[in-house]
Design a protein that fits this description.
five-stranded mixed sheet, 2 helices, DUF4352 domain-containing protein, Immunoglobulin-like, mainly beta, elongated, single chain, Immunoprotect_excell_Ig-like, DUF4352, signal, six-stranded mixed sheet
Length: 183
């Protein structure tokens, strides 16, 4: 083979390899969660959870039916949730609020749906409370719900974008007691 043909083939292969490297998606895409979008009052169906956000409010004081109370600025989310098909390990294990790239987990102090066992096709109703950070001045936040805790890469998650300026504000709010069929 002639020398110019070898160089031409070599350069062509390098250009092809560079192009393949540029169009191959990175880990942020290849390991991303499978997102189902939620809206208030609409049913969102993921691979393992069926979830309806019933109501959202910001309250300056929250309480539950057991007598727990706290003051501050709280985002209260009322939910109806059930397992989609299997009762085995069906939990609402991830309930996060993401503001300005920081993640806040739903409070474990009040009675809530966090880590509640869920029955297949049996609706469990209740609330989640997120203590809003005092230094957060973002308008937009994301609520994220998933059946597994921690790492939700390559897993089904339900997400809802919330405009914090549009959320109704209340002086005090009692969390809905957790009612329904768990295991």
């Amino acid at each position: 083979m002639r020398r110019w043909a070898v160089w031409t083939i070599g350069i062509t292969l390098l250009v092809i390899a560079w192009g393949v490297a540029k169009v191959t998606p990175g880990t942020e895409l290849t390991e991303a969660s499978f997102v189902t979008e939620a809206r208030v009052g609409e049913r969102a169906v993921g691979s393992q959870l069926v979830l309806t956000v019933v109501d959202i409010a910001v309250a300056s004081a929250v309480s539950d039916s057991r007598g727990w109370t706290a003051e501050g600025e709280w985002l209260v989310v009322d939910l109806d949730v059930s397992a989609r098909t299997s009762e085995e390990l069906a939990l609402l294990a991830t309930a996060n609020l993401i503001i300005d790239g920081r993640t806040y987990r739903a409070s474990e102090r009040p009675e809530s749906l966090l880590d509640e066992s869920l029955g297949a096709g049996i609706t469990t109703s209740g609330s989640l409370a997120f203590e809003l950070p005092q230094d957060a001045d973002a308008k937009h936040a994301t609520l994220r719900f998933a059946p597994k805790g921690g790492d939700v890469r390559l897993d089904s998650v339900t997400e809802m974008t919330v405009d914090l300026d549009d959320v109704p504000r209340q002086g005090s709010r009692e969390l809905r007691p957790t009612v329904g069929g768990g295991l």
